[in-house]
Structures are given as C-alpha cells and as structure tokens.
Amino acid sequence: xxxxxxxxxxxxxxxxxPTMEVRRASQKIVVDGKLDDPAWKDAQAVTFQFPWDxxxxxxxxxxxxxxxxxxxxxxxxDCEDNDLTAHFEKRDDPTYRDDxxxxxxxxxxxxxxxxxxxEMNAKATLYDYVYFQSRYxxxxxxxxxxxxxxxxxxxxxxxxxxDEGWSLEVAIPFTEFEGIGDGKVPQPGDxxxxxxxxxxxxxxxxxxxxxxxxxxxxxxxxxxKQFGTIVFVTTAPKP
Length: 239
Ligand SMILES: [Ca+2]
Ligand SMILES: [Ca+2]
Prior knowledge:
Elements: H1 2-15, E1 19-24, E2 45-47, E3 62-68, E4 72-80, E5 100-106, E6 114-121, E7 126-132, E8 136-138, E9 147-153, E10 165-173, E11 191-202, E12 205-210, E13 228-233
Parallel strand pairs: 1-3, 1-13
Antiparallel strand pairs: 2-3, 3-4, 4-10, 5-6, 5-11, 6-7, 7-8, 9-10, 11-12, 11-13
Bound molecules: calcium ion (2 copies).
C-alpha cells in the first residue's frame, strides 16, 4: 500500500502543470514571423515535451515565448524542423494536419473546460474556434484582429532537401477575449490558463509535443484541466 501511495504521489507531481511568466514587451514587436525583435530576448523561454513515446519520427525541438503590451498578447514559436510541410490555405481549414503550432487560451481559469483555440500552420493559415465541455467546437468564430506571420528556414513541401526550421509570431488583441474573459488589458499578477502545442510531420511519422502534458492516453492536446498557468508581470526596469 505504501508503494502504491508513493506511486500516486509521484504521478501527481509528474502531472502538475507548469507556470510561466508573461513579461511586458520592452519594445514594439513587428509581427513578421522573424523572432529578431529585441523584446523577445526578455521573454521567458519554454520548450515542449513529447508525452507519447509510440509516435514515430524525429523529436524536433520547439521553443515558445509570450509577451504582452497595452493591446496584445504575443506568442512566438521557434521550431527546429528538417522537413517543412504545409498545404492548407483557407481560414478554418484543418491546419493541425500540417506542420502547425497551437495556442489554447482560457483567460478566466475559474471557468473550466472552455477556451479559445488557435491552430496555425507553417503557411500562416489560422484555424480559430471556441471549444467547450470537451465536445463543442465553434469554428464560425473568427478573431478578426489577430496578426499572424511565419518565417521559413528551408523549402516548403520539398522532401528531397534538408530544412532548418520555421518560426511563427502571433499577436492577439485583448479585446478578442471579451465574453470568454473581460476583454480588458490584464493587470500585473493576473493569471490565465493556457497550453501550447505543436504537430510535426506527416502520417505515419507524426509527433504531437506540448508545453503542458495533456496526460491523455492517445496523442490529443485537448485537456483543459491540464493547462499550464501564465502570470502577467511587468518587466523589471533595467539597472
Ligand atoms: Ca474560425
Ligand atoms: Ca516538419
């Protein structure tokens, strides 16, 4: 019994979702897919984990960062990738079947099992929706004020060569969270629930990696109770 208790405790510790700081952007961010804006250097960087060992193919690294200012929540993804593939080009196409990254955002953690989903492929095509009760997906919702761009370090849909990777920047106006949140600019100390994911490769060699482990038995990112926590902070003034 002791052993069982120890096992459960270990499992609970393993399942504890992570926390990250969202620091205030020190300078303007140009949303062009290139992560060379000085402000990104101040952001906390997190890397994704690969929860499903049975998935085949290279476990390619993803580094994500978040920032905010008086208008936007910014998210960047830096994806190492030796073969860039993406085909979908229309709004709300199933971009998750391409090389794609995702953000699931719940601005009011006291409400459970509802979030905004943004799934964005290497062609900067956006599939956005509200997902709730683990069942209902409203893709007719379109976030009109989102800025989104990618930068490719390689050739798209050419399998004969070796690529380096791709990066994506997205800026989401805080006003877009009206209804699911209060739609106002956060105050320092505010906490939101969020997860970040990446789909990489083509079947049958395809990997799902995540910031916070969804703890689901099959590769599936949708598990709101396993979202991590983001905390909005102001950047400490430079000495
Ligand atoms: Ca939509
Ligand atoms: Ca790829």
